[in-house]
């Protein structure tokens, strides 16, 4: 579930990094204003807890495979959305740095997928609405399950979109979605069960801790507007950026279209993204309420024909500089040898 | 006129879940005394200690530190005067490096950076841990952690040092080193411990707690010979006073 | 449970590596962090069929490993261990993209295999760069770098605290897991119920510990702000490092040095 750097493009990575950085700054500000920085020791230790807890596996009966905790929901419930997000971000950062569980450029994506969705969407809009102020056992279970499942579905969908827009992997949208969502449904169910069980356990034994979240979380409703406005702006910016990207690097969307529709290019007239989306929509009937269709015009006008965008390697489709000739292979071998030699030389030098 | 440094009068405390931990404790401690607080588990030692630097505020009765009554407003001063070393050094050393932990208190007190450097190196030297200053705490041995924990409190120059089970889980040699170190301190020492031989070595005076009340308050040597008293409080004589283990004679 | 022990070992070992005193370790952490990011962006910005253009980038990890006295075998193992996700997504490429792209002598290689190789190459490069960053700098220094580069203070503190207590908590989790294992006789593995109890226990202990830490902080005058010392000074060699490598990355990005080299050599022989 953690995205690797090998599968993303700079545009996607950069955009998500910007989004995550914005969220981090926002959360830190909210934390300072509303709660205390007295929460910091608790946050640190809970982060270590999530990290340690993720290492404990249990066996799922009848399948023989093992499952473990993700942690986003528990953190949101115990600490509130802002602190929860920061803690989740820190856990993911440590995992990326020490275990390459997710790349460094992709860290922005991962924090967004695994932190934003549980803490800022699933928790306030689902868990709190269900379990809220009177957490009975049943409500905790229902709230935890629903929020965990939905949070993870959103996260998984995020991975799909990010991979898609990066254009490195060949997986087409439909197949990828069919791959990711069911798996994460199962993971979500497990996560929901664990979260519910742990929260109920803690609540029974130590009810004061659940009020921690109330003390530091915002009052329901009032402060989410700026966040949502920010998100809307971000979505516009991202959409704009991605459509620029799509128009200068048509590969990304084109191959997915090609794979899904089996055609080289789309029949409909394309005014950049709109035409593309209209076609997608036809094929997949997704988001049927949104009307992307522009008047279907005449023959195809390739989006990248008149642009003066990057001419580099990306434009050449499907030409490639993978070394068609001897020179290419020779060059590759020599480069590696050279690098190795430099490495050895340096090592001997510094070992003195 | 002796300057009472710590003055506790009729102190009561009950935990939120109803357990009554302290039921009226009164004592006076003066400058430079070394006092031990002993008693069974659950007798109230830790609770009493937590009152001495304001981690807990009295529900009834008063606590005066250096003449000032302990309340929300006087907390900062009380915390400057009383340095508390907790039982688990891992709870106390929370910064990335040893240097940071020892610098934590002086920085919070607002000392300028050059003074902080002086104070930190001084505190580390005092406990013999100068060579550890750039290490992360989790790489220290038990004894080293304890030494650094003490340094982290010394760096705020308190007049009173309160310690909770300082010799727990230390190997004999490290324990001996700690005792020797504490002997060199000029501070007022208040030590809660099960280590009765430590008490014999270090503390002239002993307070015995039983069920939230003071069962005895007097010179260590006298108290440690009162077998009845000790037995009634779940204690026994220090090993050093128990007689030769081979020939069984006192 | 093996997970816990190996995780502890890994973090501890990387930490030890970070404490060495080599020219790499002496560089300013901000510079190392930024150079790593430039490297990753450069590598990742290639088109998906690129292979030879990526190869010269190998020089960066190679040089840093040599200068920083880092163990190549250990790092290679870690890269391998991290490979599954990228591998399993990447392996679809050869299945989906079968149009023949290139001929190597008698061999016809489809685009899918080329892009798959490219993915694995990117993976190796970016992941090594990440490990080299942490092994050559240490987390404390990376956090300091983040702080000075403008990351929110509470996030940096969060990272530092987390790291400080990872050992303590994984230790506790390990003890709990061992205690259970010693009392289980079917050798099956943890059931769900026991698992949640353990996590619950761990959580309660964690909360307790947090309370005690907070008390310890208050006892030393904590008023809500944590001060991070250690000023960072930028030296000439730091700037040279950053500009030099970034310049090289830009050069390698725009000119396929590997191909150039190959062409040069074949021309020499003709």
Question: Please, could you describe this protein's structure?
Answer:
By secondary structure, chain A is an all-alpha fold. Chain A folds into three domains: 5-241, Arp2/3 complex 21 kDa subunit ARPC3, CATH 1.10.1760; 249-321, no CATH class; 324-352. Chain A has helices at residues 10-34, 39-55, 72-99, 107-130, 137-166, 173-205, 208-216, 224-248, 251-261, 273-284, 326-351, and strands spanning 58-59, 66-67. Chain A has a two-stranded antiparallel sheet with strand order 1-2. In chain A, strand 1 and strand 2 (66-67) form a beta hairpin. In chain A, helix 1 crosses helix 4 (107-130), helix 1 packs antiparallel against helix 8 and helix 2 packs across helix 3 (72-99). The two termini of chain A are 44 Å apart. With 250 residues, chain B is of the alpha/beta class. Chain B folds into two domains: 1-66 and 159-250, P-loop containing nucleotide triphosphate hydrolases (Rossmann fold), CATH 3.40.50; 89-158, no CATH class. Chain B contains ten helices and ten strands. The mean pLDDT of chain B is 88. By secondary structure, chain C is mainly α. Chain C has twelve helices and two strands. Chain C has a two-stranded antiparallel sheet with strand order 1-2. In chain C, a hairpin with a 2-residue loop joins strand 1 and strand 2 (107-110). At the A-C interface, helix 1, helix 2, strand 1, helix 3 and helix 6 of A face helix 1, helix 2, helix 3, helix 4 and helix 5 of C.
């Amino acid at each position: 579930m953690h995205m690797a750097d090998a599968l993303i493009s700079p545009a996607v990575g950069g955009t998500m990094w910007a989004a995550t950085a914005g969220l981090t700054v926002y959360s830190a500000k909210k934390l300072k204003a509303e709660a205390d920085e007295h929460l910091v020791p608790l946050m640190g230790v809970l982060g270590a807890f999530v990290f340690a807890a993720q290492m404990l596996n249990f066996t799922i009966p009848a399948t023989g495979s093992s499952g473990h905790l993700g942690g986003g929901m528990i953190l949101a419930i115990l600490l509130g959305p802002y602190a929860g997000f920061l803690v989740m971000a820190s856990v993911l950062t440590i995992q990326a740095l020490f275990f390459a569980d997710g790349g460094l450029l992709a860290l922005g994506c991962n924090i967004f997928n695994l932190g934003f969705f549980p803490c800022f969407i699933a928790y306030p809009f689902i868990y709190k609405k269900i379990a809220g102020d009177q957490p009975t056992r049943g409500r905790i279970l229902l709230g935890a399950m629903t929020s965990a499942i939905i949070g993870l579905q959103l996260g998984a969908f995020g991975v799909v979109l990010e991979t898609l827009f990066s254009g490195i992997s060949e997986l087409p949208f439909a197949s990828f979605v069919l791959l990711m969502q069911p798996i994460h449904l199962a993971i979500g169910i497990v996560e929901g069960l664990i979260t519910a069980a742990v929260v109920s356990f803690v609540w029974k034994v130590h009810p004061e801790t659940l009020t921690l979240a109330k003390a530091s979380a915002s009052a329901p409703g009032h402060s989410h507007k700026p966040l949502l406005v920010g998100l809307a702006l971000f979505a516009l910016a991202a959409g704009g950026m991605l459509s620029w990207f799509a128009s200068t690097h048509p590969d990304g969307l084109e191959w997915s279209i090609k794979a899904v529709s089996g055609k080289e290019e789309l029949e409909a007239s394309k005014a950049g993204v709109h035409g593309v989306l209209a076609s997608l929509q036809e094929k997949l009937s997704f988001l049927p309420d949104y009307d992307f269709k522009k008047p279907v015009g005449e023959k195809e006008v390739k989006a990248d024909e008149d642009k003066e965008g990057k001419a580099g390697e990306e434009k050449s489709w499907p030409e490639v500089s993978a070394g068609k000739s001897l020179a290419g292979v020779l060059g590759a071998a020599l480069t590696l040898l050279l690098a190795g030699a430099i490495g050895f030389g340096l090592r001997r030098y510094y070992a003195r | 006129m002796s300057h009472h440094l710590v003055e506790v009068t009729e102190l009561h405390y009950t935990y939120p879940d109803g357990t009554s931990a302290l039921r009226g404790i009164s004592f006076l401690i003066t400058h430079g005394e070394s006092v031990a607080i002993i008693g069974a588990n659950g007798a109230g030692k830790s609770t009493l200690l937590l009152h001495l630097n304001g981690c807990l505020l009295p529900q009834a009765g008063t606590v005066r530190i250096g003449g000032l009554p302990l309340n929300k407003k006087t907390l900062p001063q009380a915390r400057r005067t009383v340095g508390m070393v907790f039982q688990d050094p891992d709870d106390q050393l929370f910064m990335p490096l040893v240097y940071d932990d020892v610098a934590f208190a002086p920085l919070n007190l607002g000392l300028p950076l050059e003074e902080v450097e002086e104070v930190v190196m001084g505190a580390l030297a005092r406990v013999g841990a100068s060579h550890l200053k750039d290490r992360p705490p989790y790489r220290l041995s038990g004894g080293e952690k304890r030494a650094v924990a003490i340094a982290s409190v010394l760096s705020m120059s308190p007049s009173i040092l309160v310690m909770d089970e300082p010799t727990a889980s230390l190997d004999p040699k490290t324990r001996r080193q700690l005792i020797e170190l504490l002997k060199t301190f000029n501070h007022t020492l208040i030590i809660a411990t099960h280590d009765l031989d430590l008490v014999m070595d270090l503390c002239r005076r002993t307070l015995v707690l039983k069920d939230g009340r003071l069962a005895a308050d007097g010179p260590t040597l006298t108290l440690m010979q009162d077998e009845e008293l000790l037995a009634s409080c779940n204690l026994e004589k220090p090993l050093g006073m128990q007689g030769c283990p081979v020939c069984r004679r006192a | 449970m093996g997970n816990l022990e190996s995780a502890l070992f890994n973090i501890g070992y990387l930490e030890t590596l970070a404490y060495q005193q080599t020219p790499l370790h002496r560089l300013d952490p901000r510079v190392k962090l930024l150079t790593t990011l430039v490297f990753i962006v450069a590598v990742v910005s290639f088109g998906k069929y690129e292979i030879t253009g990526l190869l010269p980038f190998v020089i960066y990890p190679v040089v840093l490993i040599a200068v920083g006295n880092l163990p190549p075998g250990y790092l290679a193992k870690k890269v391998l261990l991290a490979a599954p996700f990228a591998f399993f997504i990447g392996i679809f490429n050869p299945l989906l993209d079968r149009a023949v792209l290139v001929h190597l002598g008698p061999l016809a290689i489809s685009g899918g295999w080329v892009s798959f190789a490219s993915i694995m190459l990117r993976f190796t490069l970016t992941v090594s760069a990440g490990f080299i960053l942490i092994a050559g700098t240490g987390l404390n220094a990376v956090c300091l770098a983040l702080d000075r580069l403008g990351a929110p203070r509470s996030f940096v503190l969060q990272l530092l605290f987390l790291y400080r207590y990872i050992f303590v908590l994984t230790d506790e989790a390990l003890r709990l897991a061992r205690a259970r294992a010693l009392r289980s006789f079917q050798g099956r593995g943890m059931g769900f119920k026991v698992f949640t109890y353990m996590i619950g226990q761990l959580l309660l202990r964690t909360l307790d510990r947090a309370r005690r830490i907070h008390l310890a902080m208050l006892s030393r005058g904590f008023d809500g702000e944590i001060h991070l010392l250690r000023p960072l000074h930028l030296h000439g060699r730091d700037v040279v490092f950053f500009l030099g490598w970034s310049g090289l990355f830009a050069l390698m990005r725009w000119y396929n040095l590997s191909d150039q080299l190959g062409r040069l050599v074949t021309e020499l022989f003709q």
